[in-house]
Amino acid sequence: MVHPDYTHAVQHALAAATQGLAVFPLARSKLPALRSPHRDETGPVTGPSPCRGECGRLGHGVYDASSDPARVRELFAAAPWARGYGVACGRPPQHLIGLDLDRKGAADGMRDLTLLAAAHDFTVPLTRTVITPSGGRHLWLSGPVGLVVSNSVRRIAPGIDVRGSGGYLVGPGSRTRAGRYRLAPGTAYLPPAPAPAGLLRLLAPPPAPPTPSAPVRIPTGAGRSAAPLVNFVLGSVQGERNERLYWAACRAYETGHGEVVADALVDAALRIGLPEREARATVHSAARRFGDYAIRARISDGR
Ligand SMILES: [Zn+2]
Q1: Predicted TM-score (pTM) of this structure
Q2: What's the gap in Å between 68 CA and the centre of ligand 1?
Q3: Runs of H (alpha helix) within 19-59
């Protein structure tokens, strides 16, 4: 016999799918109902599987999510123990962003959001809102195309978790161990409101720390002058890049290391912004001018 909470979840999930939201079945634990087909491949060495459904099987959590009713039915048919559904965030067309406003102990996400709004000069929009079994609230907002909102826990405020790209929200109509998720009265027919600009500035991922680019690799056997030649190229400013590259390549070929150092010199030239074609042509003309010279020198040296 089909469990009424299962039927309820399927109906609500399908209704969400018809609004363009991507959904997938959840167990009572709020975790994806379908287990990963890669669970036995995961280990301390291999780490979690990088597969996001490319293998064609079900069980990739939020990556299973779909707004195609046939696919949603298929997912639920494979998980008769499902009691709820997740709504994927960050997907077109809504680019859903979830604000999870806690209401536990001292945490008061709604108060925190009001304070943030005052401090950052935005208005909390009236939008679709889900009430959680613990009395917390999920505000559903839509984000702009192209903005990747990262998931965060208590980053923007102590009582606020953010669900963005790769995250999901427990859909209204779901039953979990804690109880039922339901729509806040009066918000059921509201579409997710556009997230205000002042809030988006807080949600955008923090800028990545500058990654120092790896040093130009100088092959072994390149001779003692190779590193200074590479640095000579790296130190060029616009307008002298080609001359300096040519000079360095000539010195390399002159000393018989041209073939070994050529790639490192081209690499250095690319880093200062010379197009690869141009850099290779320059190194090539140095080779034509001094390559033979080096070979002749080697022959006369008896090498
Ligand atoms: Zn897979």
Answers
A1: 0.68
A2: 20
A3: none
